[in-house]
Write a structure and sequence with these properties.
With about 400 residues, the chain is α/β, with parallel strands linked by helices. It folds into 2 domains: about 10-195, 3-Layer(aba) Sandwich (Rossmann fold); about 210-390, GMP Synthetase, Chain A, domain 3, CATH 3.30.300. Helices cover about 35% and strands about 20% of the residues. It has helices at about 10-25, 40-50, 70-80, 90-100, 105-125, 135-145, 155-165, 180-190, 195, 215-240, 310-315, 315-320, 325-330, 370-380, and strands at about 30-35, 55-60, 85-90, 130, 170, 245-250, 255, 260, 270, 275, 275-280, 285-290, 295-305, 330-340, 345-355, 360-365, 385-390. Strands 6, 7, 8, 11, 12, 13, 14, 15, 16 and 17 form a 10-stranded mixed β-sheet that branches. A 5-stranded parallel β-sheet has the order 3-2-1-4-5, sandwiched between helices. It has a two-stranded antiparallel sheet with strand order 9-10. Strand 15 and strand 16 (about 360-365) form a beta hairpin.
């Protein structure tokens, strides 16, 4: 019998009942890679309710997970009644990501195919006939309907064909749902709040928060930077009551401290009474969007404005990007320095946004004093030369949520 992904109709309870009915049709054993994100957690829970011990859940480290995260996720999943095995695949992933070079799309492709290589390998070990995958509707739209970027959790025709040749069916239980709907289902299933409300964490993990060339040393630093900054940034974001009902993504990235002033001679020194002091352009490319909504790699404008609160800065980011200077220099996003020191060869960009459907996102007006506390900790690291805060909204075909 063939599995049919269920569409959202009137309630999470109806979706759960209908999906369990569909999953019970699956014959033989199944496997699922559970990331700890709400999509795959929900799929795993539905799968275990339908198939019991015929479903083997695996959580793995690919080298780009956060510090201490894997152990925590496995404990949460097992505690929530989702028996989950841990495996370390770092040696399968990291050499390929490093060899991919500085281009993030190249990194994503490596991670995608390594991901599905591992899935086929584990399915064959278990003699499993089905692989459950947590693709959601937004992922499907970004990759299949209008290609924006490679996503390791989206099943493209070549991947499906490969699995079919191995006699493995790919099953996508939440393919018709958006993230907010999946959260409703997860809550209805009684999953812990730490899982149902967990911020989205991109499939490639911290690999794609290292802007440019990945190295083992940069990944070591990136994990420490993320451990120091991301949770504190999320806590600051949660204090903004006007965004309480929105999903949030709060994170840090890593960028080479290689900047230039070239091309910025005609940039206005002030916009809406906001001073644009000491502007610099990154030499490394970051991701934005072009006028057609496609990914476009360009520069990030960094400037000093220490005496201006972030709330006022986010309101001028669109105007900065609308200037002729920005267009001529391929500037796709703006960030303001929180602190800058002479030491170190890496800059940490911080990003905090609120969103609902992820097609648009608002840069959050976090208090500068809170950002300065995070910056003080980060700049204690000898490798870090400075910290910036991205003030660019994802809208009007500008910027993206992530830097890659």
């Amino acid at each position: 019998m063939t599995f049919q992904a269920v569409s959202w109709e009137d309630s999470p309870g109806k979706f759960i009942d209908d999906t369990i009915y569909e999953l019970k049709k699956l014959e033989g054993k199944s496997i699922i890679f559970v990331s700890g994100g709400v999509d795959s957690d929900t799929c795993a829970t539905l799968g275990h309710l339908a198939m019991g011990d015929r479903l083997h859940s695996i959580h793995f480290e690919h080298g780009g997970m956060r510090k201490g995260e894997c152990q925590h996720i496995v404990e949460l999943l097992n505690g929530a009644g989702i028996p989950t095995e841990f495996k370390d695949y770092t040696d399968k992933f990291m050499p390929g990501v490093i060899a991919a070079g500085p281009d993030n799309e190249a990194k994503r492709k490596v991670i995608k195919y390594k991901f599905f290589d591992a899935a086929v390998e584990e399915a064959k070990k278990d003699n499993a006939k089905n692989f459950l995958q947590g693709t959601n509707a937004a992922d499907e739209n970004e990759v299949i309907k209008k290609f924006v970027k490679t996503q390791n959790n989206v099943v493209t025709p070549d991947v499906r064909e490969r699995f079919e040749k191995e006699g493995i069916k790919i099953v996508e239980p939440v393919k018709e749902l958006y993230k907010d709907e999946i959260r409703q289902v997860a809550r209805h299933l009684g999953l812990p709040v730490e899982l149902t409300e967990r911020q989205p964490f991109l499939g490639p993990g911290l690999y794609c928060r290292v802007i440019g060339q990945v190295t083992e040393e940069k990944m070591r630093i990136m994990k420490e930077v993320d451990y120091t900054a991301s949770e504190k940034l999320e806590r600051l974001a949660s204090q903004l009551k006007e965004f309480a009902d929105k999903d949030k993504q709060c994170f840090a990235a890593l960028l080479e401290n290689s900047l230039t002033e070239d091309g910025l001679e005609k940039l206005p020194s002030k916009i809406d009474d906001v001073p644009i002091k000491y502007p610099r352009l990154t030499v490394s490319k970051v991701t934005g969007l072009n006028k057609d909504g496609k990914r476009a790699y360009g520069r990030m404008l960094l400037f000093d404005s220490y005496d201006i609160e972030i709330e006022d800065l986010v309101n001028v980011s669109d105007k900065i990007l609308g200037t002729d200077v920005a267009k001529q220099n391929g500037i796709v996003r703006c960030a303001t320095f929180i602190d800058r020191y002479a030491k170190g060869n890496l800059i940490v960009p911080l990003r905090a946004v609120a969103t609902t459907k992820y097609d648009v996102a608002t840069a959050l007006p976090i208090l500068r004093s809170g950002l300065e506390e995070i910056s003080d900790e980060l700049t204690d690291m000898p490798e870090i030369s400075g910290v910036v805060y991205d003030i660019t909204h994802k809208k009007n075909n500008r910027a993206t949520i992530e830097f890659e």
